[in-house]
Specification:
Layout: H1 27-43, H2 71-76, H3 80-95, H4 97-102, H5 107-140, H6 151-158, H7 177-194, H8 200-215, H9 219-243, H10 247-267, H11 272-277, H12 283-313, H13 319-326, H14 330-333, H15 335-357, H16 368-401
Helix pairs in contact: 1-3, 1-15, 3-9, 3-12, 5-15, 5-16, 7-9, 8-9, 9-12, 10-12, 15-16
């Protein structure tokens, strides 16, 4: 969700001159990134039912607003973060791999590009959450959802390291965890690209290692490694398919995988498929197997097929369709803003309900009108943040930290 930095002169996954322009933009991928951000936000709607002990209180998932229409993100929206990781891998292998290997992009430049994109809004939202949680504790006697808002975890968050293994639990603007993991992924990716360790089999090995790490219980980093490098493999597949002239056939196959995996996910919402596959296993193993089957349906089938379809399908778009889709590209532009702002905005809404009612109640958050109001406020704040905070701060940081370089607008 944070890829709108400088276009790099890297191998574009296109197959002709019109698609090798380093300034070109994958509009369809931008839109997908924005949609994925909102799936995570819907998953986090349950925050409004968290009590003082960090547990859900009187929570009925099906009573959330417009549940029938948004059942998948309400139940499985957390997997949207894995799509972010995968899309990051796809984009970074496309934009940076060859330039890092050749030395055209060095470690300092790469770090400044990432820092200037990620840190300004992170710092603002961190301070905002700290202030809002202080008000929340004074009003209700407990923080909103995430309890570890102490000096130690504040420092970890300042260092973008809240989920590097030093933490004692979730803290402050906890959704930043995925960005924290991405920082580690960026460092690993740069080292691999710099030393030419990005052949397909090397990346495939990292994909397997990531899945093993995840299954060992190191969820955050394991999911990041698994999906980031799987995204790199998808990019390599796109390049090979175009070079072979097989893009159209692959596009049809990918659409078929989307339909099949999507239908299977819907069918398995109540666990019918997983239960059939795991019949005879102990109850705990069946639960774990069901979770793994669902996770792999998304990450091994649906998400790679979506990336393939969007990357290959964009080649076939006519100018009218491309122009129409470009009007929605802002969803990708504000995906980072919506992701980082959505939790502090939830605290603000919870405080507003408390002030109006005299006490906190989750009841208003069952109303579709409240979801619509929240979403409208979130989009407005994200647009303001992107235009008036993130982009200006990014330009200032790059101008000072990368002197003498002419930087293209983002």
């Amino acid at each position: 969700m944070t890829h709108d930095d400088l276009p790099m002169t890297a191998h574009h996954p296109g197959g002709d001159a019109s698609r090798t322009n380093p300034g070109s933009r994958h509009v369809a991928l931008d839109i997908a990134r924005g949609i994925a951000a909102f799936t995570v936000i819907l998953w986090h709607w349950q925050h409004f039912w968290y009590g003082p002990n960090g547990n859900l209180v009187d929570f009925d998932r099906a009573a959330q607003p417009l549940f029938d229409g948004f059942r998948i993100p309400y139940e499985l929206g957390w997997i949207g973060v894995d799509f972010f990781f995968m899309l990051s891998g796809f984009i970074f292998f496309w934009r940076y791999r060859d330039d890092i290997r050749s030395g055209r992009v060095g470690g300092w430049r790469f770090s400044v590009l990432r820092f200037s994109r990620l840190y300004p809004l992170h710092l603002v939202t961190l301070l905002t959450v700290a202030a809002l949680q202080g008000v929340m504790v004074s009003r209700l006697g407990h923080p909103f959802v995430y309890p570890n808002n102490d000096a130690y975890h504040f420092v970890l968050n300042l260092l973008l390291a809240p989920t590097w293994g030093f933490e004692r639990g979730w803290s402050f603007n906890a959704p930043i965890w995925s960005v924290s993991v991405e920082v580690l992924l960026y460092a690993g990716f740069f080292a691999l690209a710099r030393f030419g360790l990005t052949r397909w089999w090397q990346i495939a090995a990292l994909v397997v290692i990531g899945l093993v790490i995840k299954q060992m219980g190191i969820e955050t980093i394991g999911r990041g490694v698994f999906c980031f490098f799987l995204g790199g493999l998808v990019l390599m597949s796109v390049q090979v398919l175009r070079d072979m002239g097989s893009a159209r056939k692959a596009l049809l196959a990918a659409v078929g995988v989307i339909i099949a995996s999507g239908a299977t996910i819907v069918w398995n919402l109540d666990g019918e498929i997983s239960q059939a596959l795991t019949a005879g296993l102990p109850a705990e193993l069946r639960v774990a197997a069901n979770a793994l089957v669902t996770y792999l349906l998304f990450t091994v089938a649906l998400f790679p097929a979506i990336l393939l379809t969007l990357a290959l399908g964009e080649d076939l778009m006519g100018p009218n369709l491309r122009a129409g889709m470009s009007r929605l590209a802002f969803l990708g532009d504000i995906s980072y803003s919506t992701y980082l702002i959505h939790f502090p905005l939830q605290i603000a809404f919870a405080l507003a309900v408390t002030l109006v009612n005299g006490e906190y109640s989750s009841g208003p958050f069952r109303m579709p009108a409240m979801l619509a109001l929240y979403t409208g406020c979130l989009i407005a704040l994200a647009l303001l943040s992107h235009r008036h905070l993130e982009m200006p701060a990014q330009a200032i940081l790059r101008a000072h930290l990368l002197p003498g370089r002419k930087l293209a607008p983002t």
